[in-house]
Write a structure and sequence with these properties.
The chain is of the alpha/beta class. It has one domain (2-197): Ribonuclease Z/Hydroxyacylglutathione hydrolase-like (Metallo-beta-lactamase, Chain A), CATH 3.60.15.10. Helix content is 25%, strand content 27%. It contains 6 helices and 12 strands. The protein has helices spanning 33-39, 53-56, 59-66, 78-81, 153-166, 184-197, and strands spanning 2-7, 13-19, 22-26, 43-47, 70-73, 96-98, 104-106, 109-115, 124-128, 132-135, 173-176, 182-183. The strands form 2 sheets. The protein has a 6-stranded mixed sheet with strand order 1-2-3-4-5-6, covered by helices on one side. A 6-stranded mixed sheet has the order 7-8-9-10-11-12. Helix 5 (153-166) links the parallel strand 10 and strand 11 (173-176). Helix 5 packs antiparallel against helix 6. It is globular, with a radius of gyration of 16 Å.
């Protein structure tokens, strides 16, 4: 599989994951449409790690132009319908609201939405066999903010603890929603400090 990233508005990473001449689009934020259309080979789906506008801004444009489905965790689907941060963004309806962590198979791709609430109610890492797209849950040297409306420090703490438990022996690369890639074992080095900072939640 080949990964091609783009960072434009708000320095949000939009990713194209291509295998066997088919492409999945992950987090198409502001100004992603033209770049995606120019670079995506036979796009088959849009996957959103969470519902914030800087990751979903061009969902509706690409959904309409490419006639492909939009996937998101059910807890964040309301963010596609309306946006308190940018009321001018075109609303979008999710085609698939993922409500569990089952393995999804789509035209040769196999992935799951691994739920890690905190940054948003439906914040997820999208887990493929050989790499993980961590959205705004985990970055190269920090974690996502948990002070936005609909964020939860308590959920973030529980999610970080769950991450540490689930990925003890894993070292797949992590592709975050902002910034450069990292990997699981690097994240495991700094996450205990954040868990400790959240100990009163």
């Amino acid at each position: 599989m080949l990964v091609k990233p783009m960072g434009r508005g708000y320095q949000t990473n939009c990713y194209l994951l291509t295998s066997d001449d088919k492409t999945i689009i992950i987090d198409p934020g502001i100004e992603a449409t033209q770049w995606v259309i120019q670079n995506a080979k036979n796009p088959i789906a849009i996957l959103n790690t969470h519902g914030h506008f800087d990751h979903t801004y061009d969902d509706a444009l690409l959904q309409r132009a490419l006639k492909i489905p939009v996937y998101i965790r059910s807890e964040d689907s309301f963010m596609l319908d309306s946006d308190r941060y940018d009321p001018n963004r075109e609303p979008c309806k999710a085609d698939v609201c993922v409500s569990d962590e089952e393995l999804i198979e789509l035209e040769g791709f196999r992935f799951r939405f691994r739920h890690f609430a905190g940054h948003t109610p439906g914040c997820s890492m999208i887990e493929f066999e050989d790499r993980i797209f961590s959205g705004d849950f985990i970055f190269d040297d920090t974690i996502g903010r948990y002070d936005f409306p609909a964020s939860s420090p308590r959920d973030m703490k529980r999610s970080l603890e769950r991450f540490m438990s689930l990925y003890a022996d894993d070292n797949r690369p992590l592709y975050p929603g902002h910034g450069k890639p990292t990997d699981i074992q690097n994240a495991r080095k700094f996450l205990p400090a954040f868990i400790d900072a959240l100990r009163f939640y």
